Automatic annotation (TrEMBL):
Residues 5-319 form the D-isomer specific 2-hydroxyacid dehydrogenase catalytic domain. PROSITE patterns: D_2_HYDROXYACID_DH_1. GO terms for cellular component: cytosol. This is Dehydrogenase oxidoreductase. It comes from Sulfuritalea hydrogenivorans sk43H. InterPro entries: D-isomer_2-hydroxyacid_DH (IPR050223), D-isomer_2_OHA_DH_cat_dom (IPR006139), D-isomer_DH_CS1 (IPR029752), D-isomer_DH_NAD-bd (IPR006140), NAD(P)-bd_dom_sf (IPR036291). Keywords: NAD, Oxidoreductase. GO terms for molecular function: glyoxylate reductase (NADPH) activity; hydroxypyruvate reductase [NAD(P)H] activity; NAD binding. Residues 110-287 form the D-isomer specific 2-hydroxyacid dehydrogenase NAD-binding domain. Belongs to the D-isomer specific 2-hydroxyacid dehydrogenase family.
């Protein structure tokens, strides 16, 4: 008899087809948000699940799923999973590193360029019929070329963001818990600096830290005060890393030139203060959202689940 699994969010039919070759699949193609209570009900008789960053796999959820052996996130971030509770219950947890680096780096750059050259506000202005004629002093933005790019969190995505800066002749500095080996630094011509130097010297600061209690509001009023008033902040990691009130206040008072934000604390809710600002580019958590990458993420999660439930070590096990 096939083992039962849950696919907690809508995925591509090809992914379900593949999973159905191995398992009895309970899908959620209607894409209802299950939440803690929904997951408890749907996981009660399941051996495994494919979950997204929006699915709260809490200790309560795990306790309500006695047959559960594996939770396979189709995301690189896994702050939605209580890893300690998984380990206590003998549940394997996996994520999808590596397959979304370039797509997420591309989006970081899209936001960086959009905020540097004020694209969202300029487009709104044009659409509103406010363009009365070309002017020499109009919609002046910030130059990206030759500027200093700072990266906080220099994992695979950070390095992919840094490599793209070579074409813009940028100076690249970074801060990370551990310094990269010299060959990796050389590959993206990035220089390790302490956190305060990163904040002080960056013209564009890209946040790529994993979210955890330690990184909660790691960028708050004090950190923003160290940044140049001409600087731009880009967040494609997790909303909770930034104190949104402090960021909005800095942007409103032009103590910071602009921001490109893809992730929000408490999303899909976001601080309405963002909408009052004309110096932000806002996107709804689409960092990895290209068809090819989302397919690769879901297929990688399926690989992990198939391995886990057939007694093999899944390639991206988080809690060995
Ligand atoms: C990730 O992979 O963590 C992205 O944010 C999508 O959830």
């Amino acid at each position: 008899m096939k083992q039962k699994i849950l696919v907690a969010r809508e995925v591509f039919p090809e992914v379900l087809e593949r999973l159905r070759q191995h398992f009895e699949v309970d899908d959620n193609q209607a894409d209802a948000i299950l939440g803690v209570e929904g997951l408890k009900v749907r996981l009660a008789d399941k051996a495994g699940a494919l979950t997204a960053a929006t699915d709260p796999v809490t200790a309560d959820v795990i306790a309500a799923a006695p047959a559960l052996k594996a939770i396979c996130n189709f995301a690189v971030g896994y702050n939605n999973i209580d890893l300690a509770a998984c380990s206590r219950a003998g549940v394997m947890a996996t994520n999808t590193p590596g397959v979304l680096d370039d797509t997420t780096a591309d989006l970081a750059w899209a936001l960086l360029m959009a905020t540097a050259r004020r694209l969202p506000a300029a487009e709104r202005w044009l659409r509103n019929g406010e363009w009365q004629g070309w002017q020499f002093i109009q919609w002046l933005g910030s130059d990206v070329h030759h500027a200093t790019l700072g990266i906080l969190g220099m994992g695979r995505i950070g390095q992919a963001v840094a490599r793209r800066a070579l074409g813009f002749d940028m100076k690249v500095i970074y801060h990370n818990r551990t310094r990269l080996p010299a060959d990796k630094e050389d590959a993206c011509r990035a220089r390790f600096v302490d956190r305060d130097t990163l904040l002080r010297e960056s013209d564009f600061l890209v946040l790529l830290l994993p979210y955890s209690p330690e990184s909660h509001h790691t960028i708050g009023a004090a950190e923003l005060a160290l940044m140049k008033p001409t600087a731009h902040l880009i967040n494609v990691a997790r909303g909770g890393i930034v104190d949104d009130e402090a960021l909005i206040s800095a942007l409103r008072q032009r103590r910071l030139a602009g921001a490109g934000i893809d992730v929000f604390e408490g999303e899909p809710k976001y601080n309405p203060g963002f909408l009052e600002l004309d110096n932000v580019a806002l996107t709804p958590h689409i960092g990895s959202s290209s068809r090819a990458t989302r397919m690769a993420m879901a297929m990688r999660a399926a690989d992990n689940l198939i391995a886990a439930l057939s007694g093999q070590r899944p390639p991206n096990l988080l809690n060995p």
